[in-house]
Design goal:
transferase; UMP kinase activity; 36% helix; Carbamate kinase; alpha/beta; nine-stranded mixed beta sheet; ATP-binding; AceGlu_kinase-like_sf; nucleotide-binding
Length: 237
């Protein structure tokens, strides 16, 4: 039995993309299989999704678009991704609910309400949070930390392209060494940049551990982590 009762999974928008599709249906189905593996362990799961596969706000500012407007565009990109994940969940008989940090009408998705989110999670629904914190100038990492705190998650699991946190970029430096565990202070002081400082600071304040791991190469990794296998890198006090 997993020691976790409720988790928050942070996914980048880039994770949904392939060489041929901005949102790849094959990857969407992999994500739903991973969600099912979590639910099968009687663990509640919420997701925070990024939007970098469609638009990155910080990139748009280089084109001369106002920073605030750029961030709003980036937040709307996360809504698109959240709807795609939710639709794939529903097709695979997984009940999912999208909640947005930005108010969006027309029956597209719900506004974030932590009470309603917790009630839905207890009923076995998957909550997909989008639009970050709902405010410009904050990353979706900070949004993930905030939502995890709001719903009372036991931990944040951040899926990345590599299998943990390293002393250096392992893609560029084959001699980089992976950490098994780190303190929040170490992660901030070493400027490891796997998550932004605001996200680390929020999790440290609320004693919320973070696990950084690679998810899509092996769809059993998250399930194995929940079973207690020592994979990825844990950041805690």
């Amino acid at each position: 039995m997993s020691k976790y009762k409720r988790i928050l999974l942070k996914l980048s928008g880039e994770a949904l993309a392939s060489n041929t599709n901005i949102i790849d249906p094959v990857i969407l189905n992999k994500i739903v299989d991973i969600i099912k593996s979590v639910l099968n362990q009687n663990v509640e799961i919420a997701i925070v999704i990024g939007g970098g596969n469609i638009f990155r706000g910080e990139t748009l500012t280089k084109t001369g678009i106002n920073r605030i407007t750029s961030d709003h565009i980036g937040m709307l990109s996360t809504v698109i991704n959240a709807l795609a994940i939710a639709d794939t969940c529903q097709k695979n008989k997984v009940d999912a609910l999208v909640m947005s940090g930005l108010s969006i009408g027309g029956g597209v998705c719900n506004s974030i309400n932590h009470i309603h989110a917790k009630q839905a999670l207890k009923k076995g629904k998957v909550i997909i949070f989008c639009a970050g914190t709902g405010n410009p100038c904050f990353t979706t990492d900070t949004g993930a930390a905030l939502r995890a705190i709001e719903i009372g998650a036991d931990a944040v699991f951040k899926a990345t392209k590599v299998d943990g946190i390293y002393t250096d970029d392992p893609v560029k430096n084959p001699n980089a060494i992976r950490y098994n565990s780190l303190s929040f202070d170490e992660a901030i002081e070493k400027n490891l940049q796997i998550m932004d400082v605001s996200a680390f600071a929020l999790c440290r304040k609320h004693d919320l551990e973070i696990c950084v791991f690679s998810m899509l190469e092996n769809t059993n990794t998250l399930s194995d982590l929940l079973k207690g296998k020592l994979l990825g890198t844990i950041v805690r006090k």
